[in-house]
Amino acid sequence: MNKETRIQKIQEIVVRDLSKPFGKMEIPWNDKLESMNVYLIPLEYLVYNKYNGRILSRTKSLEKQSFSIDVESVDGKAKIEDLLWKSNEQRNDSTLKSIKDYGQQKVGIITKDGIIIDGNRRAMLLNKGKKFDYFKAVVLDVTLEENPLEIEKLETTYQMGEDEKVGYNPTEKYIKSKLLYQKLTSKIYSSNIDKHKPDKIAIDKIAKWMGQENSDVTKYLNTMEIMDEYLEYLGYDGIYTQLDKREDQFLNLTKWLGHYYGETSRRPFDGYTNSDVDDLKILSFDYIRTQYEGKEFRIIAEGHRENHFFGDKDLWNSFSKIHFEKTKTIKETDIDLNSKDLKSHLDARDREFYEKTKNEKGISFLKENLNIHQTKLGYNQAAGQPLKLVEKSFDAINAIKTNHSSFSEIEVQKKVAELGTKVFSIQLKKSPSSVLGQIITLLESIDIKSIPKEEVEEVKEKSNRINQISYQLKKQL
Fold this sequence. Notes:
Blueprint: H1 3-16, E1 23-29, E2 32-42, H2 56-64, H3 74-86, H4 89-102, E3 108-110, E4 116-118, H5 120-129, E5 134-139, H6 148-159, H7 162-165, H8 171-185, H9 200-210, H10 214-234, H11 247-260, H12 274-289, H13 294-298, H14 313-327, H15 342-355, H16 365-381, H17 386-398, H18 410-430, H19 432-444, H20 456-476
Parallel strand pairs: 3-5
Antiparallel strand pairs: 1-2, 2-5, 3-4
């Protein structure tokens, strides 16, 4: 059914039932509440709105593939219904059972040519249930093209209202904010005032339409800006499906970057630069990609400087150096934007990236690097508790399996020697007598009979050297 026919059929119902509508409903229209009639519109007269907030990330991602959805075609209708169903299968399944029993309970809103402004999910479930043939709806006396901004406002007010937020993909509100800002200002939002000073009037309008505070909308816009950078970094520009299940990480990263750029924050290490913040962003993208979250992600740069890696220069330099040295060796497969299931293709590519971070034992250097530096951070935090650190070191040494073949490796023995030197040097500063006591104990414990023949002459020379040093020390005292 084409547009002209839909307009004619819907208008016939409006005229016929004008004096005896199904009901009445107040909706915000042209900046005031208007009481409008509710009509029973046959489902076959309706067309889904492919840009409705519930599936916006999906349709925009498909368009990036040059996949155009013709909502008036059979295939287009089926595609939208599939996206709507998959947006929240558990909730849809529950609502479908209710609709089969009681029908549509909440009134929808359509344009005069049948485009569904509010109620796309309900219409999909009615079609799927195949029990009810009508859609209860207010009919606006305009098409989408005749008053796009007012309809956008109405749609946002309903779709982003408190009741409708339940079950929405969290990413949708960020994309919606971005697109609304572009429509209202004809500009792309930027948090960098040198590029474009944020339009406060536009933000105020979006906040009212979405039922949010201005600060919330600004947060959405700033976060979406970083989300877009992330997608561009991976070569996934505009493929918003790849933001799924990563909202908290992006919120944290956006907050860090907002505080740290400008080189004035006291939370990073002293003397940090914007270049360091750039590194923080890219490094965080890799952890977001592999879906690290919670404490594991926040320890990178969250909170006061003593609580995260970015707060200590040596710790950050070590952590970031290892990360970038490892990641630059990973070779990734090409992106196939023509894939029939792009989301599955890109999800598999992200999983492949993570697999390539693993060593022969199946341990990812992302995890290992994080754990090593988390331990070092703990040492820094316990710097004023020497007994605690000494006990941890003692436990670590006791855990070493000295009979293991790898313990004899040159690199391991070199580190053991360095450790011994470090321990002696620490003690030497505080108690030379304790060091001498340990030396005596070590000398007394040497079994002369067990000295290899090839080391006998070397042991004699070193014994003489010990005698000389002892004589000089005693003489000077």
